[in-house]
Write a structure and sequence with these properties.
This protein is α/β, with parallel strands linked by helices. The chain folds into two domains: about 45 residues; about 120 residues, no CATH class. The chain contains seven helices and five strands, in the order H-H-H-H-E-E-E-H-E-H-H-E. Strands 3-2-1-4-5 form a five-stranded mixed beta sheet, sandwiched between helices.
């Protein structure tokens, strides 16, 4: 029977795990810790499991720099739970930096005993951003999609009073203003996108 490890050795392994990684490594590995502590890999794994340590995992986070974040959060939740009457509430999210790529030469089609071909390199035709606007109060929520580098002009067509533009097929004639909930993309905070288009009742 293998004798249990001394508490001092266990504490040393835990302390080393929580400290700096060895050399130029990004984190401790089981084998590296076993070699440094002079114990087996299985002993290291048992110590890490007992203390809930997972050096190979890394969780990401981002703190909002908005000083009014709490008030804005309550405002947005209120929009979803109790949307204004005669208004449109859209939750907008984006997939940015979509590359338009093309191969440098035409490929050959697939034939018998031969796969289709394409060049290993490509040429780039710029990037674009895909926006998805979800009409939350509807049941089920109705999605809208549009692409472009500037979001506000397109949202402005939705937010302008219906008498001034051609109505969107899904917008009831009674809707006169729109509330747009945007995520924290760079375009939202750019100077030319901070000002709501004419007719927009509210921009959160």
């Amino acid at each position: 029977m293998v004798p249990p490890l001394a508490p001092e050795l266990v504490a040393r392994v835990v302390e080393m795990t929580l400290g700096a990684a060895p050399g130029e490594a990004t984190h401790w590995t089981g084998r590296a810790m076993a070699e440094a502590a002079g114990i087996s890999l299985r002993s290291v794994q048992r110590i890490w499991a007992a203390h809930g340590l997972k050096p190979h995992r890394l969780e990401t986070f981002k703190l909002s720099r908005d000083p009014d974040f709490v008030a804005t959060m309550h405002d947005i939740i209120g929009l979803y739970l109790d949307p204004p009457e005669h208004a449109l509430v859209l939750a907008v999210d984006e997939k940015s930096q979509i590359q338009a790529l093309d191969r440098t030469q035409p490929g050959l089609p697939m034939k018998k005993v031969r796969s289709g071909t394409m060049t290993h390199d490509y040429k780039r035709h710029g990037t674009t951003t895909l926006f998805a606007a979800l009409d939350v109060p509807t049941d089920p929520p109705e999605p809208w999609f549009f692409a472009g580098l500037k979001i506000m002009p397109q949202l402005g067509e939705l937010a302008t009073p219906m008498g001034h533009v051609s109505p969107h097929p899904t917008i009831p004639p009674s809707v006169s203003t729109a509330t747009i909930v945007l995520s924290t993309i760079s375009g939202v905070f750019a100077p030319d996108t901070l000002a709501p288009p004419p007719g927009m009742g509210r921009l959160t």
